[in-house]
Structure formats: C-alpha cells, structure tokens
Write a structure and sequence with these properties.
Elements lengths: L2 E5 L32 H15 L2 H9 L4 E6 L14 H14 L2 E6 L24 H18 L5 E5 L7 H7 L1 H4 L5 H4 L7 H16 L7 E5 L19 E6 L2 H6 L6 H18 L5 E5 L5 H4 L23 H20 L3 E4 L22 H6 L8
Parallel strand pairs: 1-2, 1-8, 2-3, 3-4, 4-5, 5-6, 6-7
C-alpha cells in the first residue's frame, strides 16, 4: 500500500489565511466566531458560495492529472448540520465521493475539528481554546460523528479510510508552539480550563473510535490515527490481533523544524528530513506510516524568519518583493521535494497540504513565498515533480 495524495484544505473546514476574503468585514480569526459577526443570511450565503466554488468536479480531474491517487478531506464536527449556527456539509462530501469514484481517486475522510477544540489552533475551529477532551458529552458526540461517517461511506468504493481526529495536542507541542500566545483566545472566560490533552485520554479515545468505526466499515478500509506530534510513541499501541489496517499519520512541516532550532538553509533542512526518514522507517515496522500533511514551505525561500510559519495575520512582518531569483527558488524547492518524497517513501505515502490557496501572494503585502502551500502552483512552477 502506497498512497500519493493531496489535502482539500480550507474547503469544508475554513482557515482564514488560506481564504482571507471570506473573513472581510469581521475581526473573526476562525470559523467559530465568523457567524457571530455576520447576519445569518450573510453567513450562510458566504459559506454556501465558498463551498460550491472552492472545490468542483474540475478539481478532481486536475488532481488526477497531477498523478495523485487520493485526496484527504478535512471535515468539521458539525458536518451533519446538527450544531447551530454552523452549516452542515454532508452534501458536499457526497458530491466528492461521486467525483472521486468517477475519476479513479480515493478519499481519506479526516475529522479535523472538535467542539471546543482538540488543539487550540485556528484550524481546530476555535483559536486558543482546548477543552474538548474534558467534556464527556462532547467526546461522545465526536464518536457519534465518526460512527455516522463510517455508516454512510464505509462500503463506498471511493473510501480509502477514516482518520479519527486531526492533530490532538499534548503538553510538549502545546509548549513548543506556545499556543496561548500564538492563537490568543477571544474570550478569556471561555478559555478558562484550557489545557492540552493527555496521552492516556487520546489513546483511549482512539481505541473506542476504532471499535465504533469498524462496526460499519469493512476491514480492507483503513482506520487512520494521528501521532499527536509524537511519532515514536506508538510502538505498543493496537498490537492485538483485532486491529486491522490501522495507519499512523504524522504531520511534518519544515516550519516546525525551524521552530525547534533547525537552521534556515538547504543543507540543514535536508539533514533534518533524512533523520525523519529514519524515524518513519522505524515506525513503519509497526504501522503503515503516512505523512498526512507536509509542504515545501520554508523561511529560506520566503526571505526571512517566519518564526515557525507565522503570517502577516499573526503580526509577523512579511516581504512584499522576492529576494531570491526564480531559478534559485526552483532549485531549493526541487532539492527539498526530492528529500521529502524520499522520506515519505520509507513509509506508505503522503498527502500534500494543500491543493489550493486563495491568498493573493502577488498583490497583498507580506505574502511573498507563501505560494508553496498550493500544490497546483507548485506543479505549475515546476517546484513539485509530477510522476504519472
């Protein structure tokens, strides 16, 4: 089993930096606060237009032509439309399955958010809050969402697998990301009690989720779990005979390497990735390992230290003019793509983050160098090799 795929990020789970215009006229930094600042009509119109235009049938043919064989689709906990004021998006996922099956692609459904968040990131649905795992009712709610997804799509030809939960955070990553400062909570009252999840809780949740999903999904489909940013902590996990086709997902970004002190030059990036390759090969002995999120983005090609991938939205001053030539940029990206694809090959494949970006990196000051998050552009500029 080897998978080559791309994430459909910012389609059904919004990320402000990937589509800033959606948030125009509001101070909302995340999906949670967007409907609190718009009238119901305006909010619903914005979301419906975004979802109908951002990903269409045509994108599935493009993804196929890029040599990919799968898409990872982040979905929110309110996908079934039962958590007002948010709007469900199960119809969009239905369409995606029809397109995927028509054009020979597979889908990994990724439950990307949880009520009151599993990580405190903007992409966890609400910035600076991480309290989901402390509320047994919401934990149960999340399990029922997984169960309903498995029931609806478990036997679909286009289903590759279901990912239990995206990026639940533990204490070490909470501290190194400095979540509370990087993603300040809007409402200090709501943020009370916020803290990272425990490993004990996450393991228990994964085991329970496996049982619920497998009830409705045949053994040949994959159950995927995220490493909670600890790639090598899972050697004793799900060793029992009953666990079939379980995949370990690790997310590996150069911006996190930089955050952890990796020097911002090609040699150091490459040696970091080579070390990572060894860890992936080591864990591949226990589970098929996929790199479910990664990209070519790095501070060197941006032209300044992005402090772990912080944007102009985080108040980090960006450049408005390229400071390295197109040729040099292409060389750097080609070298990194080669090293990273080689590392993921020591495992069972990858999903690039992300398929597209609606940030105008040309006209909006401060976004130079951010286009490497967009796989379509990477392919068009020759930064990312296409293997057909």
């Amino acid at each position: 089993m080897k998978v080559k795929g791309v994430n459909l990020g910012n389609w059904l789970v919004l990320e402000k930096w990937m589509s800033p215009s959606l948030f125009d006229g509001t101070t909302a930094e995340d999906e949670y606060y967007l409907p609190t600042q718009l009238s119901k009509e305006v909010y619903e119109a914005k979301i419906k237009i975004h979802r109908s235009e951002y990903i269409t049938e045509r994108d599935f043919t493009r993804i196929k032509s890029m040599g990919m064989d799968a898409v990872r689709i982040p979905v929110p906990y309110f996908i079934f439309g039962d958590r007002e004021p948010f709007i469900g998006c199960i119809e969009e996922l239905d369409k995606a399955f029809n397109w995927a099956e028509k054009y020979g692609l597979q889908i990994l459904i990724d439950l990307h958010t949880a009520p009151d968040s599993q990580n405190g990131f903007d992409n966890g649905g609400i910035s600076g809050i991480c309290k989901w795992s402390q509320d047994p009712d919401e934990v149960e709610f999340e399990l029922t969402v997984l169960e309903r997804l498995a029931k609806r799509y478990g036997t679909r030809k286009g289903l590759w697998g279901i990912e239990i939960l995206n990026e639940p955070i533990l204490e070490d990553m909470w501290e190194s990301m400095n979540v509370a400062e990087r993603y300040p909570a809007v409402d200090p009252e709501k943020a009370k009690g916020t803290k990272p999840n425990t490993m004990e809780f996450i393991r228990g949740f994964y085991l329970e989720a496996y049982d619920r999903i497998r009830k409705h999904m045949p053994e040949e489909k994959y159950v995927v779990f995220h490493d909670a940013f600890r790639l090598k902590a899972w050697k004793d996990f799900m060793r029992e005979e009953k666990y079939k086709n379980v995949v370990l997902d690790t997310h590996q970004y150069l911006m996190v390497a930089e955050m952890n002190g990796c020097e911002q030059n090609v040699e150091n990036y490459v040696s970091y990735v080579e070390e990572l390759k060894k860890d992936i090969a080591e864990m591949q002995e226990y589970f098929p390992v996929i790199c479910g999120e990664w990209c070519l983005f790095n501070s060197l090609t941006v032209g300044h230290d992005t402090k772990g991938g912080q944007t102009v939205l985080n108040g980090v001053e960006g450049l408005s003019e390229e400071c390295i030539s197109a040729e040099t940029k292409k060389e750097i990206y080609n070298t990194l793509a080669k090293a990273m694809l080689d590392a993921w090959d020591a495992g069972s494949g990858y999903f690039y983050w992300s398929y597209k970006l609606l940030t105008d990196t040309v006209n909006t000051p401060g976004w130079v160098g951010w286009d490497s998050w967009d796989l379509g552009r990477c392919v068009d500029f020759g930064w990312f090799p296409i293997e057909k």
